[in-house]
Every structure is written in C-alpha cells, then in structure tokens.
Amino acid sequence: MQILLVDLKRQYSAIEKEIDRAIKRVLASGQFILGNEVSSLEKEIAEYTGVKHAVGVASGTDALHLSLLAIGIGNGDEVITTPFTFIATTEAITYCGATPVFADIDINTYNIDPAKIEGKITKKTKAIIPVHMYGRSADMGKILKVARNYNLKVVEDAAQSFGTEYNGKKIGSIGDIGAFSFFPSKNLGAYGDGGMIVTNNDVIADKVRMLRHHGSSQKYFHKFIGYNSRLDEIQAAILRIKLKMIDGWNEKRRKNALLYNKLLKGLPVRLPDGKGRDHIYHAYTVRMKNRDKCSRFLSENGVSSAVYYPVPLPAQEAYRHLGYSESEFPDSYKASREVISLPMFPELEIAEIETICSLLKKFFCNSKMIMSYSGKVEMS
Ligand SMILES: *Cc1c(COP(=O)(O)O)cnc(C)c1O
C-alpha cells in the first residue's frame, strides 16, 4: 500500500478527456501567448473572486513580485510578513530591493498574528503581506485595520488558498491585491507554472498588465522596463476547466479534513483550526512533539507526509544577514519543529484516511509504551 501526499494522476484521470480537448484546442488555434484562453480565464477568475481585474502571470512568485512593484515597493522600503511561509513570499520583497520584516504567527492558525504587526512598523514600512497558510484565511479584519491606521498597502499571498473565504468574501479580494499560484500541486493547479493577481484597483491592474509584458500595452511601445511574465494559453485552457471543479474539490478537501479530525480526536496532536469556508485544507497539517519520528513511521508504512516548513525564513541561510534570533519568533520556530502535513487531495478515499489514522493511533500507542519507561510527559 502506498498513499501519496498529493496524487495528481487521480485528478487527471477523472478529467482527462476535457483536459486533452482543451490542450488540442489551443494547439489548433496557433495562439500561445496572451490570447483568448488567458483573457477568458482572467474574466472568470475576476468573477469568481469578486474583483474588477485579474491578470495572469508566469508564477505565484511573479504574481507577488509584480504586485509589489505595482504598488511602488522599491529600494530601502520595508514589507512586513510572516516568518512561517514559503520563501517566495519574501523573495518577491527582496527582488524589489526592499527588506522583509517579520512578525510572528498565531500558533493556532499558523498565520501572521495581527497583534504583532504594529510593533514592527517603521517609517520605511510600505506594505503587509499576510499569507493564508495551508488554505486557512489570515485574520484580514485586524490586518486591514492596522494597515489603514498606518497607510500601508496589503498584498495577500493567496498561493495556498484559492476559494478560501473570509467573512463570506473570497481570499485575494480583501486587501489591495491578491496573488495566486497555479503550481501543479496547489489546490487550483496548472500542468506547469502559472499565477494570477486580482485587484479592484484600475491603476494597479494596468501596471501589472504592462509589467508582465515588457512594460508595454501597445506592441513595441515600452513605457518602462518590465518583464516577460505571462501565463500561457495552454495553462489557461487547463485552468478554465479546473476552475469549474474547484468548489467541489475544496468541499471534498473539507470533508476529508472533518473525517481526519474525527478519527484523530483524543491523540496527542493539535488538529487544524478551521470553521466553515475559512479553510480549504490545501494541506491538512497537525502539530505534535515527536513529528520526525512519526513521519518516519508513516513512511515505513507506505504513507507520505511533508513538513511545510522545517526552517522559519529568518533562520534560512539566505536571510541570515538580517540578524534575527529565534527568541523573536517563538511560535514560528515551534511550528517548524512540530508541524506535519498528512495526505490531502480531493480524490483521497475514506478508507485511506482510516488507514492513515489507525497508523497514527498505533504510533502513539507504541510511543506511549516507550514514554512510560523513560517517564517523560508528552504534550496533548
Ligand atoms: C507556492 C507558493 C508561492 C509561490 O508560487 P509559485 O507559483 O511556485 O511561484 C508563494 N507563496 C506561497 C505561500 C506558496 O505556497
């Protein structure tokens, strides 16, 4: 038996005919860059997220980078974000010549703690990037309040949370800009790289549209130096099909999470924090003291798991020069040591979740016997 963390082949086999037809349609059209598929997908995603503009770009990282450029982030500026995220969030800041400034997370949601933002604001601060980790919405109400008080822009890193809602509004549409990733394993994933920015702001949308296309809105006329960062037609055609399925898939993720929650109750693990549509369970992530041992045990029994992420960004070699210390971000470090993500995708079967959970029960039963010898007390 082998249970993968994410099994993309199962999804493809369910939608194979439609996908193949869409790819062929693009091949036959002879149009591969910025054609009808991208503009249609942009309209459909703008409608889905409830915003005026959506702009397709080459990746989630570029969506963040071009968003920051579009709001004028540059040399010497500071952008506040979470230490507990994928490095793309802060790479985008660094690309602009700005400095990432970290505010610790709320250990219950793994998202930036709004109460810790204000103390990090300086004269140089220009923006906040909340990340909706694992598909769980950040506390946007409080984040927007701080941002308004200090006149800061808010760029949502929604790479892990397509379809997540906050108070009935789609994630990405709440701050000034939202950045999505269509990396294949994201909950709305292409078959290659891709990304999208969404915004209600006409000026920002225009700027991103030009930034992705060599600073140009009219062929061979360049207002500024831009980039080559376009979503391609084949990926857009694939995503248009998957967009129609995303609500059903997210619902299945939530069902899977509820089953996990039910079966893991009573074990010494911290279950994810989610209510209603504020979590789409891009990852099903729990916390426990003996994470590495548990991951090895699962792997020996054919179950894949992952650690997102084992090293907080301030401790990464790439950011060591910023000189942060562990004591500034206790909850991010704790999360890095204790989180483990279990298999999660819409096509995961009930029987598979049952198997994973009985393995976990066995693991904790075994480790309790070892503990009673060593006399150590475990967390719950
Ligand atoms: C995946 C991811 C990104 C980057 O997306 P790419 O499309 O791989 O460039 C950015 N931020 C977070 C939180 C992510 O999970």
Would you kindly provide a written description of the structure presented here, covering whatever features stand out?
This protein has 380 residues and is of the alpha/beta class. The protein folds into two domains: 8-103 and 112-243, Aspartate Aminotransferase, domain 2 (3-Layer(aba) Sandwich), CATH 3.40.640.10; 246-379, Aspartate Aminotransferase, domain 1, CATH 3.90.1150.10. 40% of the residues lie in helices and 14% in strands. The chain has ten helices and 15 strands. The protein has a seven-stranded mixed β-sheet with strand order 1-11-10-7-6-2-3, with helices on both faces. Strands 4-5 form a two-stranded antiparallel sheet. α1 (8-29) runs antiparallel to α7, α2 packs parallel to α7 and α3 (60-70) packs parallel to α4 (88-95). It is globular and about 70 Å long. Bound molecules: pyridoxal-5'-phosphate.
Q: How is the secondary structure organized here?
A:
Blueprint: H1 8-29, H2 36-49, E1 53-57, H3 60-70, E2 78-81, H4 88-95, E3 99-102, E4 105-106, E5 111-112, E6 125-129, H5 140-149, E7 153-157, E8 165-166, E9 169-170, E10 177-181, E11 195-199, H6 202-211, E12 216-218, E13 221-222, H7 233-264, E14 284-287, H8 291-300, H9 330-338, E15 339-342, H10 350-374
Parallel strand pairs: 2-3, 2-6, 6-7, 7-10
Antiparallel strand pairs: 1-11, 4-5, 8-9, 10-11, 12-13, 14-15
Helix pairs in contact: 1-7, 2-7, 3-4, 3-6, 7-10
The structure holds pyridoxal-5'-phosphate.
Residues 59-61, 85-86, 88-89, 131, 157, 159-160, 181, 183, 193, 195 line the site of pyridoxal-5'-phosphate.
